[in-house]
Design goal:
By secondary structure, this protein is an alpha+beta fold. The protein is 32% helix and 27% strand. The strands form two sheets. The chain has a six-stranded antiparallel β-sheet. It has a two-stranded antiparallel sheet with strand order 1-2. It starts with 9 loop residues before the first helix and ends in a 12-residue tail after the last strand.
Length: 256
């Protein structure tokens, strides 16, 4: 059953008015919104109501508050309607993608995790990338990414297979490689290929090694995001993303 505009909560209706203005170009990406008093007058609403709607827009990644500047429209405001698979460094970057620092680029045998999520034969060889995602100051996340076996990728997503090989070739055998995530390579190679993804979120602790990589104590609470990306019914990438306390907010879209 559709919900009419008259039955929306006032803050939601105000949220939508401002979001519509962002998406129709009235407030284009990178622009600064008018001051609260001016914007409240333009919209004909009270400042408390406006402040609540602006807070929701900030939490949803449409706006960013910058000290000494005010509220600005993010360069890449969230898409409305159908959501696209998006690399973590862009998803949690609040309009400014995080930097990807390569730690490991190698080939390894399947683990229980990859056997389960990539449906991989026991003796297969899988590309494994380990990266730290960093913004201003401390590291924000640690990512482990695995691609499906080459033979499978060559069959179901040859563009991704070629892009992975080309990206690794740029590393020149260093084992580290260019400052990109595996998911960003997949997304870039999938302009003509539809992707679907499923993620799980659990609470955990960093532990000693991951704490050292992120510059945090071993007992730091963290969110672990597991992710599987598919082409049709075939999984082509599996990942674990570790976000410690204090990392940028992770937007979560729920649908049914």
């Amino acid at each position: 059953m559709a919900v009419s505009g008259q039955r929306r909560r006032p803050v939601v209706a105000l949220y939508e008015r401002i979001a519509d203005a962002v998406h129709d170009g009235t407030y284009p990406p990178g622009s600064t919104l008018p001051s609260e008093p001016k914007l409240a007058t333009e919209l004909g609403v009270s400042r408390p109501a406006l402040r609540e709607a602006l807070l929701l827009l900030q939490e949803d990644g449409v706006l960013t508050v910058r000290r000494g500047v005010g509220r600005t429209v993010n360069d890449r405001p969230p898409r409305r309607g159908f959501e696209h698979v998006q690399p973590l460094e862009e998803l949690i970057g609040a309009g400014t993608p995080l930097r990807v620092r390569s730690l490991v680029r190698t080939v390894e045998e399947p683990t229980d995790f990859t056997t389960q999520h990539l449906l991989t034969p026991a003796r297969a060889e899988l590309r494994f990338w380990e990266s730290v995602l960093a913004g201003e100051g401390a590291a924000a996340a640690l990512s482990h990414e695995w691609a499906a076996a080459d033979a499978l990728l060559d069959r179901v997503h040859p563009e991704f297979a070629r892009a992975l090989r080309a990206t690794e070739a740029e590393a020149g055998g260093s084992g580290r490689g260019p400052a990109v995530s595996m998911l960003s390579v997949l997304v870039g190679a999938s302009r003509e290929t539809a992707l679907s993804a499923h993620s799980g979120i659990t609470a955990t602790l960093l532990g000693r090694r991951r704490g050292e990589q992120l510059g945090r104590p071993a007992d730091t609470p963290a969110v672990l995001v597991t992710q599987v990306v598919r082409v049709g019914e075939t999984p082509v990438l599996a990942a674990k993303h570790m976000l410690p306390t204090g990392a940028p907010a992770l937007p979560v879209l729920q649908s049914h």
